[in-house]
Design goal:
This protein has two helices and ten strands; from the N terminus they run ββαβββββββαβ. It is mainly beta. Strands 1, 2, 3, 6, 7, 8 and 9 form a seven-stranded mixed beta sheet that branches. The protein is globular.
């Protein structure tokens, strides 16, 4: 799948640039996310993620964020299938749901991805009754379950791809 949700009704795939994330607060009312929230929820596996802290108008400090125990985890996500009218080719895309930051991430950024507890995976994926959506799961992970550290600005360049990017910055 490609990151950046393209809803089934989109005229073209360009909308994906603005739909890499979905705000938990508007997930049930936004026309782009409303139907996927009812019927196409997914888990987005990860071992960590980066976030950028604004230092001033021109500079940002990247941070690496993981679970405190170092385990793999899953973001709450939504997916959709769009069909290109010109080629007939289907395109499957997804978005990561974000929420308010916990105490660890609050000084770094004003949002954080929803990280689901493994005990909630089945409930999140169960299509169930569309009138009883699992919106209560769309909350920040407790601070004590996470860790964060400053990393090099090299993470901001897509040409860089090595485990050294995770080393703490000087």
């Amino acid at each position: 799948m490609r990151w950046g949700l393209v809803p089934f009704f989109a005229k073209d795939a360009k909308i994906a640039y603005s739909t890499i994330n979905a705000r938990a607060e508007s997930i049930t009312t936004s026309p782009v996310f409303r139907e996927p929230m009812k019927r196409r929820r997914c888990l987005v596996p990860a071992t960590g993620f980066y976030e950028w802290q604004a230092l001033d108008k021109k500079s940002k400090q990247p941070w690496a964020i993981e679970l405190a125990d170092g385990n793999i985890f899953a973001f709450a996500g939504l997916w959709d299938r769009w069909k290109d009218k010109a080629t007939g080719q289907p395109l499957e895309t997804y978005t990561v749901i974000t929420t308010d930051p916990n105490e660890l991430l609050q000084p770094i950024h004003n949002r954080m991805p929803v990280i689901l507890s493994p005990r909630d995976y089945t409930r999140w994926l169960d299509p169930g009754e569309p009138s009883q959506l699992p919106v209560d799961l769309l909350r920040p992970l407790p601070t004590e379950q996470m860790k964060a550290w400053k990393v090099s600005s090299a993470v901001g360049n897509v040409r860089n791809n090595s485990s050294e990017l995770l080393l703490p910055a000087d």
